[in-house]
């Protein structure tokens, strides 16, 4: 799989993957991404900002995520303790095509983000998810992210929602 910065022609596939993720979470009773977010406009803005990435398998989009190397307001609400206090990157909106699950793709996305963050001079990578999102919790913990505490989202359609936050220190 090749991970590349997303281009406008990827947005249809990106939206389809996150729409399926929304449906899957609803079916599992997870109240995450159930308010019309992320949508096409979210991905278009991320593509325009150069923050959206896709995993390509033989040219087909099979995974998506957003990478940023700037502080996030929600992470200032942490009830707990971060492992580091230096510059960090964030990974958000991770989703994998359901037809490709079980192939370790999410781990490849995390590895890419950590390598990019290290190259960008970051000391860690932070990520958050819904308390009930057991599949994502397992994935982040399996990759070595450590639970740091609870946060409250501060922006966007899910502002006010509680999430659990993790951090991976880069070596």
UniProtKB/TrEMBL annotation:
Gene3D superfamilies: 3.40.630.30
Entry superkingdom: Bacteria
Pfam family, one: Acetyltransf_1
PROSITE patterns for the chain: GNAT
N-acetyltransferase domain span: 1-171
Species for this entry: Adlercreutzia wanghongyangiae
Name of the protein this chain belongs to: GNAT family N-acetyltransferase
InterPro entries in the cross-refs: Acyl_CoA_acyltransferase (IPR016181), GNAT_dom (IPR000182)
């Amino acid at each position: 799989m090749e991970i590349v910065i997303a281009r406008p022609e990827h947005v249809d596939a990106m939206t389809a993957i996150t729409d399926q993720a929304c449906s899957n979470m609803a079916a599992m009773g997870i109240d995450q991404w159930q308010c019309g977010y992320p949508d096409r406009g979210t991905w278009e803005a991320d593509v325009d900002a150069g923050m959206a990435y896709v995993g390509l398998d033989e040219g087909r989009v099979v995974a998506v995520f957003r990478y940023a190397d700037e502080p996030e307001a929600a992470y200032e609400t942490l009830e707990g303790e971060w492992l580091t206090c230096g510059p960090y990157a964030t990974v958000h909106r991770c989703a994998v095509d359901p037809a490709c699950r079980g192939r370790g793709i999410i781990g490849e996305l995390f590895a890419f983000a950590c390598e990019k963050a290290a190259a960008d001079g970051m000391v860690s990578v932070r990520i958050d998810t819904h308390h009930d999102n057991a599949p994502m919790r397992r994935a982040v913990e399996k990759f070595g992210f450590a639970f740091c505490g609870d946060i409250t989202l501060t922006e966007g359609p899910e502002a006010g929602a509680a999430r659990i936050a993790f951090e991976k220190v880069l070596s």
